[in-house]
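Q: Please design a sequence for this.
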């Protein structure tokens, strides 16, 4: 290792080139700041290279394959015995998608004057950072810094991930062949997304969840619908169940699990996927030297401007307390950049939408009915079924419903949630409505194009007001 004697001076150093980091760097470049963006692997971070994008590419491919079994009722005939899915060939398509997006991010950084450095960053002091770049060691002196080092999967000590038999969420997307059976430890977002996609490809999937129900983060009615669809796909769901041990032998994994309902059981699986959470990447970047404080779980507390306890050092994304979602990180990145650039920016909204790419998709923003009641609201809510939407029926996607939650007196929208086809795209309207403090009347009186799935919002809002057209209103 060669230690550089002279530090390169720059306005801002950004540690991590994921959705938050590169968004911050590009915005800083737009604001005329000199920026060094440090990424130890590939631009785009886990989301683009190992998480969000490849997983959705896999979910889409599995969904398209699964749809083939139902097209005969529409008059479409397929040659018997000729339809198959080849995971190794899908890997090539996935790589082409990632490569295209990588090049796009790289081009945007270059076009906005961002200097990208590939290496591992460590704070040396409150205004210097060192970067290990292969055989060299470079030093940068900064006026401000943004920590966007992301997170990694949490694997309990008794589960020894080997990338072959016991997998994390990145490993599963590197497989060349589809396993015959697979157990997933954790019935949250990632576990249910990947479990349902694999089940569509014919894998015998068992979900093991410690909580009383799968997807405990969302409303019970939505969780119940996903569990119903999972069972239709042949999945086994074990809730209130804990994994005690995992042993790899003879090319298989033996799990010992316990529950009050079934007692102790042993499962023999080809592979085990662990999806029980993530931990922040804050332990190896020299925060002590920079005197940046973390909480007891390793997260970096920040204010609405994304400042840490060191006013010139900011933190965004998965290293900060809160949900680990790419769009949250990107928003924080832009806020931090604008604050550094002297603009009156702040991360002052609690409206972080969620999307779950299960079958069907689930998405929402704002409060659930239960949460609104706990906050002291007198609540009114209504749902509108996909089965009463012309577009949904015409495309054979009649499962699901949209729900709106409002304050009973003012009709102010408190939450909007949807389960069904294209929920991921429909929720954008909900985010905007809540950001604008819209009321149910605003949504119900807005003309929506027909026939589209977006009409479910208009109808649900009309339903909560008691004058929906395409369902019988409750008296």
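A: Design:
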């Amino acid at each position: 290792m060669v230690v550089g004697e002279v530090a390169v001076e720059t306005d801002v150093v950004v540690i991590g080139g994921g959705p938050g980091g590169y968004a911050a760097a590009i915005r800083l470049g737009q604001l005329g700041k000199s920026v060094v963006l440090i990424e130890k692997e590939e631009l785009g971070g886990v989301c683009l290279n190992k998480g969000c994008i490849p997983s959705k590419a896999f979910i889409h491919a599995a969904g398209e394959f699964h749809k083939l079994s139902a097209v005969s009722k529409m008059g479409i005939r397929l040659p018997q015995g000729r339809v198959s899915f080849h995971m190794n060939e899908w890997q090539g398509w996935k790589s082409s998608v990632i490569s295209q997006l990588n090049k796009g991010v790289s081009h945007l950084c270059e076009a906005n004057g961002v200097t990208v450095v590939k290496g591992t960053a460590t704070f040396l002091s409150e205004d210097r950072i060192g970067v290990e770049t292969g055989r060299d060691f470079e030093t940068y002196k900064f006026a401000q810094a943004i920590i966007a080092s992301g997170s990694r999967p949490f694997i309990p000590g008794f589960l020894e991930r080997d990338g072959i038999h016991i997998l994390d969420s990145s490993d599963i997307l590197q497989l060349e062949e589809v396993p015959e059976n697979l157990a997933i430890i954790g019935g949250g977002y990632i576990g249910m997304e990947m479990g349902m996609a694999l089940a569509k490809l014919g894998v015998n999937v068992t979900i093991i969840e410690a909580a009383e129900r799968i997807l405990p983060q969302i409303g019970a009615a939505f969780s119940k619908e996903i569990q119903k669809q999972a069972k239709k796909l042949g999945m086994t769901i074990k809730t209130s169940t804990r994994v005690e041990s995992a042993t790899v032998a003879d090319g298989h994994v033996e799990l010992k699990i316990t529950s009050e309902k079934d007692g102790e059981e042993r499962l023999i699986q080809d592979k085990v996927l662990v999806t029980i959470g993530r931990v922040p990447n804050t332990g190896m970047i020299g925060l002590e030297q920079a005197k940046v404080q973390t909480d007891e779980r390793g997260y970096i507390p920040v204010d609405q401007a994304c400042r840490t306890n060191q006013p010139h050092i900011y933190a965004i994304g998965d290293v900060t307390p809160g949900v680990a979602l790419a769009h949250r990180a990107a928003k924080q990145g832009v806020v931090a950049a604008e604050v550094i650039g002297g603009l009156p920016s702040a991360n002052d909204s609690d409206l972080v939408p969620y999307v779950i790419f299960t079958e069907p998709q689930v998405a929402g923003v704002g409060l659930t009915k239960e949460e609104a009641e706990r906050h002291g609201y007198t609540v009114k809510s209504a749902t509108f079924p996909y089965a009463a939407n012309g577009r949904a029926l015409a495309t054979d996607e009649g499962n699901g419903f949209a729900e709106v939650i409002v304050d009973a007196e003012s009709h102010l929208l408190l939450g909007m949630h949807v389960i069904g086809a294209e929920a991921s795209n429909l929720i954008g309207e909900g985010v905007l409505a809540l950001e604008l403090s819209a009321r149910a009347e605003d949504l119900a009186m807005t003309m929506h194009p027909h026939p589209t799935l977006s009409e479910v919002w208009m109808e649900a809002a009309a339903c909560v007001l008691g004058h929906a057209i395409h369902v019988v209103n409750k008296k």
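Q: Thanks. Anything notable?
A: Residues 73 and 336 are 53 Å apart (CA to CA). The domain at 166-276 is CATH 3.50.50.60 (FAD/NAD(P)-binding domain).
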